[in-house]
TrEMBL record:
A UniProt-annotated Pfam family: FAD_binding_1
Enzyme Commission number(s): 1.6.2.4
InterPro entries: CysJ-like_FAD-binding, FAD-bd_FR_type, Flavdoxin-like, Flavodoxin/NO_synth, Flavoprot_Pyr_Nucl_cyt_Rdtase, Flavoprotein-like_sf, FNR_nucleotide-bd, NADPH_Cyt_P450_Rdtase_alpha
Gene Ontology biological process terms in this record: response to hormone
Residue ranges annotated for the FAD-binding FR-type domain, each copy included: 282-523
GO molecular function: flavin adenine dinucleotide binding; FMN binding; NADPH-hemoprotein reductase activity
Record-given protein name: NADPH--hemoprotein reductase
Residue ranges of the region described as Disordered: 1-20
GO CC annotation terms, alphabetical: cytosol
Matches recorded under SUPFAM superfamilies: Ferredoxin reductase-like, C-terminal NADP-linked domain, Flavoproteins, Riboflavin synthase domain-like
Amino acid sequence: LTVMGEARMDPNLSPPDSTAQQDSLFSMTDVFLISLITGLFTYWFFFRKKKEEVPDLPKMQTVVAPVRDSSFIEKMKKTGRNIVVFYGSQTGTAEEFANRLSKDAHRYGLRGMAADPEEYDLSDLNRLSEIDKSLAVFCMATYGEGDPTDNAQDFYDWLQEADTDLSGLRFAVFGLGNKTYEHFNAMGKYVDKRLEELGAQRIFELGLGDDDGNLEEDFITWREQFWPAVCEHFGVEATGEESSIRQYELVVHTDVSMNKVYTGEMGRLKSYENQKPPFDAKNPFLAKVTENRKLNEGGERHLMHLELDISNSKIRYESGDHVAVYPANDSSLVNQIGEILGTDLDTVMSLNNLDEESNKKHPFPCPTSYRTALTYYLDITNPPRTNVLYELAQYATDTGEQERLRKMASSAAEGKALYLSWVVEARRNILAILQDMPSLRPPIDHLCELLPRLQARYYSIASSSKVHPNSIHICAVTVEYETKTGRLNKGVATNWLKNKVPDQNGSSSLVPMYVRKSQFRLPFKPSTPVIMIGPGTGIAPFVGFIQERAWLKQQGKEVGETVLYYGCRREREDYLYREELTRFQKEGVLTQLNVAFSRDQAEKVYVQHLLKKNKENIWKLVNEGMAHIYVCGDARNMARDVQNTFYEIVSEFGNMSQPQAVDYVKKLMTKGRYSLDVWS
């Protein structure tokens, strides 16, 4: 075209030139026509393609389906539910309570559903009033130092930022906590208070369950007053007695390929054979145990140090984080349950949810064998809760045993007392109950449906990733005790870990694990002094802290005073990490090592006594040095006693009254200068 344009512009061309130009023009016209035809064909082709793609547009819309599914309102409307019970659960108990409450609803002509807040858009709460006789119940556990559970974190964040009008929402909250912790039931209290602030209507008072006491009784007591309040509010009545309704149906597989059968995996099938990061609670990493040594030199207990190899896992951790491990139940307990119930434990089966709309298709990964379920998925060592006893009662052929089970599951004072003494205080697990009630022989599939899930166990990491980037260290004590019935009960995880001995092929030394982030952190500035208080296995995170301070010092950083208060029973019996601590002290990393041996003299000496002895130095470090305080270990006694000691020190040297001293320490906590990593 450019050439054509140029030809028209030149009138002085000679005849020969003109002829040549015409030849050229002809050929260019051919090119133009061919290009035009090609262009038209290409346009037609793509135009036709688009037309063909039009019918496929609805398929593209399926991409947004998960957004619609995240609306619990739509799901409730679709399935005819009017009560939703959300749970914030770290160990499975809050989820269990939520399931029980949602199941209760049918007795009052209502329909309930338990829901994980992580799976739904909670901003839809303002639409719940669109459903007749609707109610939202929240079973909220508090984790750590007043924190929400992992699955309730997004809900908590939303509540903090929300300015939604929830005036049409009716709600009730049951909190699960432990009074030995500083922030007892913080999450339950916050949800209850915040929902009211946003205009929601509380139809029953906040329930506060205490796991240090009797959480099951607290829940039953709240529940038996909660439902009458619901009835009064909605003008409904109970339609009958509590009845046993199966949630899952049994399917036995006789010809299933073993490649499709779960053998202990937590999420994806064959995930233990084909490991893929990132690793978390639903996809744990199989770490090899490279070291397992006994730490104590004497005594009845077994204290151990384990090292888990995390090479090539891409797992990252910081000093103070927790490692979660998934243990396995003792095979002898599993076999005894199989024998008592006359079951072939290697039968492959699935338990399928009868509610097809439920997000939870199975109570644990299916298909699997009864042996795998009882070994890796179900809690068979803790005393069962009252709802399990109630459901099992129908299978006791002896009327006396049946009545006893029903009585323990009732809300009557006599029944609660019997449950407390016969089950809780006697620490009877499901095997002990089956042994002590010869006529009770439930179908094993119903038992598997009722038992709670076996939970991961958390341990404070006893290493620094700066020094040990490819391994995570654990410090633990095996749990073993005799019950009132004369049985020997063993802690599931610690006894399982005890037997994880490194071997050459690594087959018997694999531990499914993942890391849970913690707020228990060293100060940002290495020059800030630290005061660490951790008797017994409470020393674990401080081994990591000291390793890290030593590493920082090697890097040429200015490292502040590093003070440790450690306690054990006897110096020659259970002084953990003695050699390491002595070395760190000689190197000048550990500036003070204060050890309390509680049983080496007539009068018992604990860490709080050593704190009082050095109170002037403590006050100077806290007040002038802006030291950070860390407490790790027993929450029931030690942590409380240590905190009271700090109140005394602050009161004496800060010239403050007791309430002022308490306020001073609380402010240290708020500022992140007084941190706790405790358990009960």
